[in-house]
Structure formats: structure tokens, C-alpha cells
């Protein structure tokens, strides 16, 4: 089967499975890049993809687009997902699923958390801004930072929270997590006081 049509079917299947629009767009961007690269290499059918096709695509991403190891690994993860889908849907055999043979690049991820001094500086600025301006935005910005620091939730999880998800009396918030699973996050007394205000 032509890669182009396999990619279209793959994306339709992801829509059917109710994946988020953002996830589907990410798949689409990466697979379109992969398809374009394959066409330039005169690889048109899914069954003609070789391990070196995928590896040279990843090298191309680094050289031409400046992708770091993390970005390349994300795109490789999508290609692997696509190839596994092709195998599951009998477009290729287990032996033809060559993406299994391509390993992820080693990533050097160094996350540097904010220091206590930086956190205090942020909060001090937002507190004084809230006192000075007394606008909805200044209160909102302050409580966003306080909530993120107090709960450790992701930004995407915070965005989807409504007041109905807050239980200030029992000190918890219901969070819809990354895998669409509902979980309860405890709220500190200080955070409850700030939220009530």
C-alpha cells in the first residue's frame, strides 16, 4: 500500500479512537514529513520501508531541521506507532515492520527546577501586582502560579479545571490527567485560603 494512503487511514483510525485533536495534529505533521522524505528517497510503499529509511529520516531531521534527540525520538515513536498499526491492519507482515529494529537516540534531559529564591521572587512580584492593580487578571495570574506550585499539576491539567472540580471544604481538586484519568489532588491550607479569596 502507498505510504500516503496508509497515513490517511492511520489518522482516520486515530480520530475514530477519539484521540485529542492536538495528538492527531502531531501525528499528521510528523508522518507527512516522513512521507515527503520517503518520496524523495523513492520509497513509495509501506512494505518498501527499510530500517535505514527511518534512520536516514531521523538524521535528516537533525541536519536540516535542527531536531535534538528528544524531538527525533518523538518522531520515531510516531513512526513506530504507524508501522505497528500497519502490521496490526495486515498492510505489512511482522517481518516487514522494520521500525522495531530502530532504537531511540540517547537523550540528555536536564530539568532545572526553580530555586526557592526564584519562587519567592515570582510570588512577591505577583502579590504586589495583585495589590497594586486589583484586577481579575492580576488575581488570576497569581492564583495560577500558586496552584501550580502547590499541587504540581501540569499546565494542561490546570487549564481544564472548573470550580466544580474544587472541593475546598475537604481540601482536594479533581484533575483530569494526561491519559484522561480522573485523580484527586490534595490542596494545602494556604492554597485553600488563597482559592477562597
Automatic annotation (TrEMBL):
Short name of any one Pfam family annotated for the protein: Phage_integrase
Domain Core-binding (CB) residue range list: 1-87
Tyr recombinase domain ranges (all copies): 109-197
Gene Ontology BP, a term: DNA recombination
Record key words, sorted: DNA integration, DNA recombination, DNA-binding
InterPro entries: CB, DNA_brk_join_enz, Integrase-like_cat_sf, Integrase_catalytic, Integrase_recombinase_N, Integrase_SAM-like_N, Tyrosine_recombinase_XerCD
Molecular function GO labels: DNA binding
Family, as annotated: Belongs to the 'phage' integrase family.
Protein name (Swiss-Prot/TrEMBL): Integrase/recombinase XerD
Species whose genome carries this gene: Fontibacillus solani
Organism placement in taxonomy: Bacteria, Bacillati, Bacillota, Bacilli, Bacillales
